[in-house]
Each structure stands twice: as C-alpha cells, then as structure tokens.
Amino acid sequence: MKRKLYLILIAILLLFSVTISLVACGEKQEEVDAPRFYEQEIEIGTDYIKIKSVYTPYEDLVAEYRLNDNGKWQKENEFKNLTSGTEYTIFLRTAESKKYKQSEEVSIKITTLKAEQSAIPEVKFTQEGKKIVLNGFTEEMEVCWDSKNENWTQVSEYEYKTNGEYIIKIRYKESNTSLTGEAQEIKVVISDYAGGNGTEENPYLISNYKEFSVLMEDCNKSLDNYYKIVEDITFPNTPVTFAKGTQTNSNLGGYIDGNNKKIINPKITDSDRSRIDVGIINRVKSIKNLNIVNAEINYTETSSRKDDTGIGVLVGCANEIINCHVTGTINVSCSWGKNIIGGIAGILETSSNYEKGLIEKSSAEINMTINENKSSGDVLKVGGIVGELFKNEKFAGKFNNSNFNLSRLKANVNLSFNNCADINTAGILGYMNNQSKLNVEINNSISTGEIVYTNDNVITKEVVAMGGIAGQFSGNVTNCVSDLDIKVIDRTTEASSSGKLIYLAGIVGFDQPWTKAENRVIKNVLYCGEIYIEKEESTVITMYGCDSMANSASGGNLTIENAWHAGILGIAAGENSYPADSDDEYLTVAWQKDTLKLDENIWNLVEGKLPTIK
Predict the structure, then answer these.
(1) What is the pLDDT of residues 396-442, one digit of tens each?
(2) Are 125 and 145 in contact (CB under 8 A)?
(3) Which site in 164, 259, 263, 451 is 20 to 30 Å from 435, CA atoms measured?
C-alpha cells in the first residue's frame, strides 16, 4: 500500500512539472519597433557627441548606443575624446529584456564641430617699391591684400598698382578640423619709394634719382616723414629744377638719414622764389650722414620780392644738420639782394616746435660767386657753412629763447662778391639777428680759403661785414681757427654822399650788441689769414673797422680772451689779440694744445700744420 502511494505521489509531481513547463513555454518575448533619434536632442561639441533623449516605444525599454561599425554597445549616452570636424555614425537600439526582444538598429551621421584656431600667424614681409613679399607664409594660411574687399588668396606676393595705405590680413585658413583663425594685420604704405612706410622704425627707402626727386616734392610740402638713402645717387647730366614748394613761413618737416651715401654731380637751376628755399633739398627739419659730391647750384633772381630766399648746396632751410659734407659751386645773380646763402645750408631755423638749432660734424668745400650789379639793395647774408640763423615766429607765434649750436665744422671756401650793395659774410656763419634773443655758440670749427669783395665803381652806398668765422654776429666763439683771407677791392672813383661802412675782422666781422643780447665771449681762437682793403684814392669810407678778432659797436658786452693772430696782417692787430712769438709757433702741437687749448679728441694736431677737425 505504501509503495503504491509513493508511486502515485511521484506521478503527480511529474505531471505538475510538465504542466509548469508547458505554461512557461507558452510566455513569448514581444518584438518592439526600433527607437528613433531626436536630432534636436543631440548635443554636439568639437570633441564629443551627447544623445540627450531618444524615442522608444515603451518607457521601460533601455537604449544602447554604438560609435561606428567597430564600436562596442554601451548604455552611456555620450561619446568623448572625439576628433573635431569629423563625421561619426551613431547606432541606436533598445536592449533585450524578459518581455521584449532586442530592437533593430537605427543610425544617424553626426559631424563634430570644427575647432577654433588659437594661433595667429607671425608673418614678416619685405617691400620693394610697390611689391610686397610675405616671409614665413605657409600653405595652411591665406591672405587678404586689401582689407577693404576681403578677397582671400594663397598668393604670397603682390604688387600694388595705386599708392596709399593698405591693411594686409593673414590668417590660418579653414580646414577639415578647424575654423579660420584670427587674422594678423600688417599695415603697408605703397609709394614711389623703394620701400618703407615713412615711420621712424620703417623709413621710406631711396635708391635712385627718381625716388630722390619724390623726396624733394615731399619735403616741399613739409611732410613729417622719415627717409633713408640706401644707395649712392647720381643726378642727370642736365640741370634740374624741382617744383616750388607751397609752404611759406611754415614749420619744417621731414627727417633724412643719408646713411653715409653720396649724391653725385647734382646740378640745380632755379629762379625767382619767394621765401621758398633752394638746394638739393629745399626744406627739411633734420638731415644727417649725407655726402654731396661736385654739386652745382645756379640761382637767378629777376624780380623784387617781399621775403628772403635760403640757398644752400645741401639744403635751403633746415633745423638740424649732422655729419653732412658738401663739395661744389654756387652761382647767384640777383638784383635785389634778399638772399641767404650757405655752403651747406642757407638758413638754420628754429620755431616753437623745435627751439634748438644744430649743425655739427659737417664740412663744406665750396666756390661761390655772387653778382648783384645794383647801386643799392637789401642785405646779402652769406656763410661758408650757414647763411643765417633764423627764429621763425611768423608761423607759430612768439616763443622763448632759441638755442643754436654750430660745432665741429670745417669750411674751405672761395667766396666772390661782385658789385653787391650790403653784405654780411664769413667762413662759417654769415648773419644772425639777435633782436629775437638767440643764444648762439660757435665752437671747435675752422675756416680756410678766401673771401673777395669787389666794387667796380657800381655801388655808391655799401655796408660790408666780413669775418673769418662770423659776419654780423652776437654770440660766443670758442676754440676756433681761421686761415681765411679777407679782401675788399673798391674801385669807386667818386665819394659817396652817404658814405660806406666796412667792417673786416679775423673772427667776427661785426659784433652787434642788440639790447636783448647776453654777455658774449671770443675765447681760445687763432686767426692766421690776411686782411686788406684796396681802394681808389678818391674813395671815401665813412666808417672803417678792421681788427684781427672782432669789430664791436660801443656798449657791447663782448669779452675777448686768449685770442691770437699769426702770419701777415694788413691791418692793425687790435688791442685784444696777441701775435704768436714767431711765424711758425702756432704750427706746433704743444702751442695748439697748451696755449690755444684745443682738445685732441676733437682736433687732429700734427706738427708743422694747422689743426683740422676730426
């Protein structure tokens, strides 16, 4: 009985198990539709893609993602460390569950954003005239040659057709992975020069006569640009005339660096200017380091005018001249005499914008002939280096003291005046008017050569001031030497009703003590030239002043110290100068150092010779 019950129990259990199994086999997983992407719910960066939300048929379904065909499925909805500007395929499905089968895959193509360029190009450039060449420009870059039109190209050189200022833009171009970068900007000035943009850091470059002639036009306009001469320049064989300037009593402009180059054989012919100055360079504020070789300046004046004209081999009018040297001739024919003439510069000028005038370390080797041929006229102001020191108050108004320094100058000149009515002339400086209160220093300079004034029975009234260093002057002269012969030849056959005033001196022709002048000194100077007057017996000279050092008007505060004369003097020595003990004493190095107090750092001292400026 027990055995039978046991068998029945086993059969019941087996039947229950089979029933359960059959029931279980009857519960099938449901298939589901594929999920879908919401494109607006996809966040894209330069290095990541994030699926923020997707559509699934049922809320309890779990989405799975895969990156590209070879990726692994993941439930994380963000892919990181991707490459910018790259297309990726994102696959999407719902995961298998007890109730639902795994869905079919769907996919979407997504491109990561391009990265911004952080680098800015650092391209350099060279300029040759109107042509610009970019240095360091690579194939990853692009350039816009004119920022006004935004046309981008990959051409690394360009030649402009029109003068003007341009902004060049250079940037890294857009690539598969990066956007265009921020642009580097380069400003260029296209002009008729070899290069440069006219700034102090990048001056206009001048390499030939054509470019030099453009410089002349710019200086006439008082443009405040910087210029640099990079090659020796030879002028045409025929004389040239530069266009007349348009500025009258204007501030000077322009800075020229001659770069120790030469201007060779310049020939300038000009006439009838009114306060528009004449020279290889008409007007400029500053000029330095330039050599003028074998120049010829011819100026003819045929009509009267109101203002003076500055005439110089180098420049008509300037404020600053340093280390410039000239050789050549100046020929002037005038009937009114309102000319200011210098071997280097006609006028050295100051104004309220530049209160210090300077010329130093410069020399002139000049032959000058001036013909006036008129019985009377205005004053000629002529110097072997500078014609006149001028304080320009007409343009900028009144201003305080002007300071002029003329230092380390050498003039070897032959100045010839024919039938000129009134003259202020000398080896270094012709004239200064101290009614404007100028503070002037002439120091460590030397003049040699000859000044000859001739009156062929034409001039009935004449005023002449001639000096070895300065003509009419009211300033300080120190440590200077003059071996300049000064000669007056007067062939007048009858006496002048109003008389003649002639002042000749080895250092200063006429010291004019204007009421505003400070105390003045002539010190440590040597004159070793010859001074004389040759005249007809009937010629009457109303006032006659000749001195080895200076003629000074009464009441002048002029002090003369350690002043020496040597050689032949056709005049009285003057009470303030001393002869050397023998004819050759002044040629000894010991005397030049110990007695004349010349500085060997400035002067070349050679036994048996006159000192020369280094």
Answers:
(1) 455 456 689 999 999 999 999 888 878 899 999 999 875 556 789 99
(2) no
(3) 451
